[in-house]
């Protein structure tokens, strides 16, 4: 099954542990979950579209769309509730936190209702019962028969999944390798970094039926029913909503809609995906990725520069108690931001502030990267200010200029010229660091490349394309920055 909370999400949840329980208790005290959804008229479904045939991306009428068995179930649930379905894509690790912080209303993403997860969210009845296979290279089919055949080899699985735990606990003399996405695991298998990949039977069938070089063998893992079943997750305390949706789930099971309708429909999309797998066919996806990458970078550079100037001025402030306190606060901010990973900061802004303000993923990404960039820019500017000869300041003051005017017209222009290469390097870095926001579902280049990989089952080609695109972006930006640097030196 899919991933549980990752380590980063455990950190985020720990930061919110004093807030989330309060909202959960309130929901339990007054359950209006069903009424709230019906009044809103929209049901937001969170999913991670990298898990065919449960959920994956397919090109429908020239547009990349999330399809699959789980999407059909989500449409059925929304129809029975009398509301519209809205699908929000994000990494699987982000789904549970997104549900708890109100970013989404439900999770349908091949999620298994384990006891650990039941402590945090409410599950419906099981809508699908599956099992596990191991995907191998077809050339090795005579060599491997089940999990016990991999002694001395390496088995891979998605990090945090029940398959991954089974590989670690139920195999002997076998190395385990965890990765965050199925596409990465299949790529590692085909490049012989792995000897096999443990995954669910439907997913194994999807990959092997669309790649003649792969084959599936029985896993023979000893797994509980919870670990091989799928259910819909809602916020804890959503009793009325869960009870209503259970009626839909029961109908789906009674009429056997998953096997009769939903899986066959997903299979058709899987076949459609492999009709044209050329990278040129997906130019719109890559163009969208470039567009969002540039939007994030330009906005983050602009706001980061403003934040950096304010922090740098605060850090160089001297005088009364207020200025001293301002200097301490700015120093603490810079040290804290530089001492924590940007990925955690992005998740904190999106999910943490999401407890109070429902910010879109793109806005959250820009805010997080701007705040991060501001801390680094502040140090560049502070270094630039310190590099200006003190005589410049003394000369300006002797002419009657105020502190503010001296800083604005004399010191900062010279400092900017000194630190321009560092600022240019920060801009180039942000172009590449913008890829981090893909974890919250922003459709920049990395996100779009993952979509193409899921669509085409080609692992290397999309990576090559985005490498070239990133190089074009960074090379063009560096040439422009070098042009302005030469002009400033000439002036």
From TrEMBL:
Residues 1-29 form the signal peptide. One of its GO terms (cellular component) is ATP-binding cassette (ABC) transporter complex. One of its GO terms (molecular function) is transmembrane transporter activity. CDD domains: TM_PBP2. The keyword Membrane applies. SUPFAM superfamilies: MetI-like, Periplasmic binding protein-like II. SMART domains: PBPb. It is found in: Cell membrane. Residues 290-481 form the ABC transmembrane type-1 domain. It is a multi-pass membrane protein. Keywords: Amino-acid transport, Cell membrane, Membrane, Signal, Transmembrane, Transmembrane helix, Transport. The chain crosses the membrane at residues 292-314, 348-371, 460-481. GO terms for biological process: amino acid transport. Belongs to the binding-protein-dependent transport system permease family. HisMQ subfamily. This is Glutamine abc transporter, substrate binding and permease protein.
């Amino acid at each position: 099954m899919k991933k549980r909370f990752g380590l980063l999400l455990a950190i985020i949840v720990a930061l919110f542990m004093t807030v989330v329980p309060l909202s959960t208790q309130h929901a339990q005290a007054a359950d209006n979950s069903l009424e709230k959804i019906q009044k809103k008229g929209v049901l937001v479904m969170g999913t991670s579209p990298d898990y065919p045939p449960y959920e994956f991306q397919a090109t429908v009428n020239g547009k990349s769309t999330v399809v699959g068995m789980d999407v059909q179930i989500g449409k059925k649930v929304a129809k029975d509730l009398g509301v519209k379905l809205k699908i929000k894509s994000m990494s699987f690790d982000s789904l549970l936190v997104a549900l708890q912080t109100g970013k989404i209303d439900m999770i349908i993403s091949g999620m298994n209702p384990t006891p650990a997860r039941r402590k945090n969210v409410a599950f419906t009845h099981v809508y699908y019962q599956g099992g596990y296979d191991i995907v191998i290279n077809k050339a090795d089919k005579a060599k491997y028969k089940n999990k016990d055949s991999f002694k001395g080899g390496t088995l891979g699985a998605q990090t945090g999944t029940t398959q991954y735990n089974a590989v670690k606990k139920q195999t002997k003399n076998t190395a385990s390798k965890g990765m965050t996405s199925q596409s990465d695991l299949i790529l590692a298998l085909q490049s012989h970094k792995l000897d096999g990949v443990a995954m669910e039977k439907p997913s194994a069938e999807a990959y092997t039926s669309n790649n003649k070089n792969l084959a599936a063998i029985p896993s023979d893992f000893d797994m509980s029913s919870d670990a091989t079943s799928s259910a819909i997750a809602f916020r804890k305390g959503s009793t009325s909503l869960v009870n209503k949706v259970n009626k839909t789930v029961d109908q789906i099971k009674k009429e056997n809609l998953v096997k009769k309708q939903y899986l066959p429909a997903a299979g058709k999309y899987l076949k459609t995906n492999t009709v044209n797998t050329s990278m040129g066919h997906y130019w719109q996806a890559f163009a969208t990725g470039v567009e969002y990458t540039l939007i994030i970078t330009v906005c983050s550079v602009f706001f980061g520069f403003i934040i950096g100037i304010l922090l740098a001025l605060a850090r160089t402030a001297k005088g009364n108690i207020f200025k001293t306190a301002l200097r301490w606060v700015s120093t603490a901010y810079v040290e804290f931001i530089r001492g924590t990973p940007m990925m955690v900061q992005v998740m904190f802004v999106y999910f943490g502030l999401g407890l109070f303000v429902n910010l879109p993923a793109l806005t959250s990404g820009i805010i997080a990267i701007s705040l991060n960039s501001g801390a680094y820019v502040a140090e560049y500017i502070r270094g630039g200010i310190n590099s200006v000869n003190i005589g410049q300041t003394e000369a300006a003051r002797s002419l009657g200029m105020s502190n503010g005017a001296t800083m604005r017209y004399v010191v900062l222009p010279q400092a900017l010229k000194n630190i321009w290469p560092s600022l240019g390097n920060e801009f180039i870095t942000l172009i590449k660091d913008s890829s981090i926001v893909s974890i919250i579902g922003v459709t920049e280049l990395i996100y779009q490349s993952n979509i193409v990989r899921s669509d085409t089952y080609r692992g290397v080609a999309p990576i090559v394309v985005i490498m070239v695109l990133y190089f074009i972006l960074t090379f063009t930006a560096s040439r422009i920055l070098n042009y302005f640097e030469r002009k400033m030196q000439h002036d």
